[in-house]
Design brief:
This protein is α/β, with parallel strands linked by helices and about 240 residues long. About 30% of the residues lie in helices and about 20% in strands.
Length: about 240
């Protein structure tokens, strides 16, 4: 079995995508039919969809909340939390996923570049911080409003919006000596560029997933297999 060594001088940057959550039973955004739970992206995950039909958007993300509550962290989530416990501040996790499975597994040094399912924020972007919100909404009338009067929207980065925490993410990639990418297709930008940025900075790059990603040529190691099987024994921390 492949093993990757991590020395006392290494700093590890981890990027996770939909594949790691799929192993916990959560559907990936773009299935083979181009839909997510029967909806097109244009219906539920664009600024235009929100302006056109906020109730439909909230209904969709309420369904995702309900599914997320039932899902449990899998061995891959737990392996990453255990790696963080060993490395401390030499570990940083960026996830494209909006679920909280990493947190529930014990991860602490992480950012959600595409937002968080269990939070809501003002539609007017008035500067108020996102608030925790796990409500399963049955109608738009149940959705609260910000102090400024704007309706609360899901704290999700819709298609066409800028991902969150990009300055911090770029800073951490620049410091990393090892990048691990787990369960992402290599087709969604800017995340698909992260491996190229890491290589330019001189880092080793490792991909774990059931099949090679579209940007496989940028990795120094491609380890095929389910993350829940591969990750628990992948790293040797020296």
């Amino acid at each position: 079995m492949t093993q990757i060594s991590i020395t006392a001088k290494d700093r590890v940057f981890v990027l996770t995508g939909a594949g790691i959550s799929a192993e916990s039973g959560l559907p990936t955004f773009r299935a083979e039919d181009g839909l997510w739970a029967g909806h097109s992206v244009e219906e539920v995950c664009t600024p235009e969809a929100w302006r056109r039909n906020p109730e439909a958007v909230w209904q969709f993300y309420s369904e995702r909340r309900a599914a997320g509550e039932k899902a449990m962290p899998n061995p891959a989530h737990i392996a990453l939390a255990e790696l963080e416990a060993k490395l401390g501040n030499r570990f940083f996790l960026c996830t494209q996923n909006v679920d909280d499975l990493h947190e529930r597994a014990g991860s602490e040094r992480l950012v959600h570049m595409h937002g968080e399912l269990a939070k809501a924020r003002c539609e007017r972007e008035c500067g108020r911080s996102p608030v925790e919100d796990r409500t399963i909404y049955r109608s738009l009338s149940e959705v609260g409003h910000c102090f400024c009067g704007g309706r609360l929207r899901p704290h999700i980065v819709f298609f066409g919006e800028i991902p969150l925490e990009m300055e911090l993410i770029q800073e951490e990639i620049g410091k990393a000596t090892l990048m691990l990418v787990v369960g992402t297709s290599g087709s969604v930008y800017p995340a698909a560029n992260f491996v190229h940025w890491a290589r330019m900075a001189g880092a080793r790059t490792v991909y774990v997933g059931p099949e090679p990603p579209l940007n496989a040529s940028a990795f120094t190691h491609v380890v095929e297999g389910k993350a829940g099987v591969v990750l628990p024994g992948l790293f040797q921390v020296e």
